[in-house]
Amino acid sequence: MKRRTLLQSFAALTVLPLIPACSRSQVIGEASSPIIPLNKPNKEWRDLVSPRAYQILFEEATERPESSNLVYEEREGTFVCAACYLPLFESAHKYESWTGWPSFTQPIAGHIATKLDFKMIWPRTEYHCAHCRGHQGHLFSDGPPPRGERWCNNGIALRFVLKEEELPALRT
Length: 172
Ligand SMILES: [Zn+2]
Known about the structure:
Largest sheet: 7 strands, antiparallel
Helix content: 10-25%
Strand content: 15-25%
Low-confidence stretches: 1-23
CATH architecture: Beta Complex
Order of helices and strands: HEHHEEEEEEEEE
Strand order of the largest sheet: 1-6-7-8-9-5-4
Bound molecules: zinc ion
Radius of gyration: 17 Å
Number of helices: 3
CATH topology: Metal Binding Protein, Guanine Nucleotide Exchange Factor, Chain A
Structural class: alpha+beta
Number of strands: 10
CATH class: Mainly Beta
Shape: globular
Mean pLDDT: 87
């Protein structure tokens, strides 16, 4: 009986990628996001960000751990999307996850959208900028209390703006 349950669970896992929910995108933090998504073709971002940032933001690549200085950024400020400059995370919600990627306990409400991706065998929650749709990272459930969330971000997909500095104008 136990064996059958195990086999059934495995069968359920193998059909999971076929569930259409994998393409559903959901904005986090608010029922309706105040952010209007841009309809800018990906190729137009090529001239605005570095080649490596383009791979991460618009081809969903992942940077090597420890490769971004933002892992060690501890000053007060705001982390904005490296492509369109939408503020995505506040420094108050950054924490040391010891993974080698900048990690946060929560994003700025309404500024991030998620979808499930099946690049690995198991489904993962991918998240991206709600404005330009640039890929930022993945959300995991092993973060610190009370929310238990770990927003694991590519450093190159972010730009840090010190609290004393003015936020850059949103790109359109
Ligand atoms: Zn963006």
